[in-house]
Amino acid sequence: MVTGGALVGVLTKHWDTRVMTTRAVDGVLIVGGGYAGVHAARMVRRAGRCATIVDPTGRHDFVTRLASVAGGSAPVSDAATPLSSFADDVVVAEMTQVRDGEVDLADGTTLTADVVIVTAGAVPIAPAVVGIEHAAPLRTEDDAIALRRKIDSNDSVVIVGGGATGVQLAGAIAATDPTTTVTVIDGSDRLLAGMSAASGRDAMRILRERGVAIRLGSDVDEISRFGVTVDGETIAGLPVWAAGFEARADDFGLPVDDAGRVLVDRFLRVERWTNTFAAGDIALHTASNGDELPMSAQIAVQAGEVAGRNAVRVMRGDTLDRARLGHRGWVLDLGGNRGIAEVGPVALTAPFLDLFPPALHWGIDMKHLIETRGLAGIADRPGA
Ligand SMILES: Cc1cc2nc3c(=O)[nH]c(=O)nc-3n(C[C@H](O)[C@H](O)[C@H](O)COP(=O)(O)OP(=O)(O)OC[C@H]3O[C@@H](n4cnc5c(N)ncnc54)[C@H](O)[C@@H]3O)c2cc1C
After folding, report:
1. Most exposed among 149, 153, 273, 278, judged by the fewest C-beta atoms under 10 Å?
2. CA gap 225, 238 in Å, rounded
3. Closest-CA residue to 237 (of 250, 224, 247, 246)
């Protein structure tokens, strides 16, 4: 569906038996309406230029709240909001390929624009584990709502993955319904391997206090509809896959690294392209010292802002701004008014794990909404 008047000029050509349509989009075309996409749109509109977002869902998913929604500690209304108020125009469609300044959609349409920003995010990793298709994923509003229904009708849940997603989900389920048996399985020797050892220990303590069983150093042998087999033992329960995400940018014809992330220059422009940027989980982002930055909402927001500003600079013929991205910390909400927070290199410890991290998490979500949608965003505030 294409709305509004931002699409101008329609050229239709025939290709074999299919009708291929090319449309020129006014201003900046942003692929993906996640954290990077809506913050890129904010910068473009702030500069008085038109921002069109292409997304197959037509929604902005609050991915950082999905574990709470799926686990039952946050209402379903927290999961997503329509994209229409984040952009001048929304095209509900899926990108299949991108070339410099041009995007092919699944319906055969090609959109062209002065500048394109690709922010199509990441997808759950899918290693060759027998039966992985039986494990429920958690990345979209649809996933969260489907998972919540399944959890409600199961008395045991087995979560594969002890990173931020698995830990937040386990915490939310155990805080909401202590009668549900929850097991978290991870191949490494600790929880939250991407965070400090202290945060991993605190997460372990909070989850164990709530009765969550934790199996570390265990690799999954097999998954079925009824449970997960590790080290020859089957743990019965609803299987959930929370073992990480990967970018699949090579599917779209973009230059990528070994992990499938778009290679970008220091202005976040796709390497060796001129009118196309990439930001968020789909791209390889680095700090000024060259360290790889984690896939996170805060990095996606920063990168989206840089890409949006530089897109406008391309249109004006100005020199581009160098991206200066930095990891500021982590805030996880484990439900039940408890959580984990790291501010810079400092991990908060008890008693600051009570109330403070969930309140901070909520505050960050509110800032995100107000920045991208103005005060109208408050109406969509988590819990509204
Ligand atoms: C359960 C969970 C909890 C998390 N918690 C935290 C947290 O507490 N803090 C934190 O910093 N990070 C957290 N993260 C990570 C964070 O959510 C991501 O890093 C962030 O969403 C990345 O933003 P993005 O804009 O790159 O991608 P996304 O937010 O995933 O947005 C990508 C968008 O692209 C669209 N899209 C996909 N494919 C196409 C296509 N082919 N064509 C057009 N559009 C497409 C999607 O529909 C989506 O709207 C969490 C992740 C998960 C899964």
Report:
1. 153
2. 7
3. 224
Q: Spell out the residues 6+ positions from residue 314 whose beta carbon is closer than 8 angstroms to its own.
A: 114, 115, 274, 275, 320
Q: Using one digit for the tens of pLDDT, what is the confidence trace for 18-57?
A: 567 999 999 999 999 999 999 999 999 999 999 999 999 9
Which of ligand 1's atoms lies nearest the C-alpha of 361? 8
Atom nearest to 298 CA in ligand 1: 11
What is the reported pTM? Answer: 0.91
Ligand 1 mean position, distance from CA 232 (Å) = 34
Read off the pLDDT of each residue in 233-252 and give the average, rounded to a whole number: 95
Domain boundaries, the chain: 7-56+92-122+247-322, 128-243
- Choose which CATH entry (3.90.1570.30, 3.40.50.410, 3.40.1170.60, 3.50.50.60) describes domain 7-56+92-122+247-322: 3.50.50.60
Instruction: Give dist(CA 125, CA 246) in Å, integer.
Output: 6
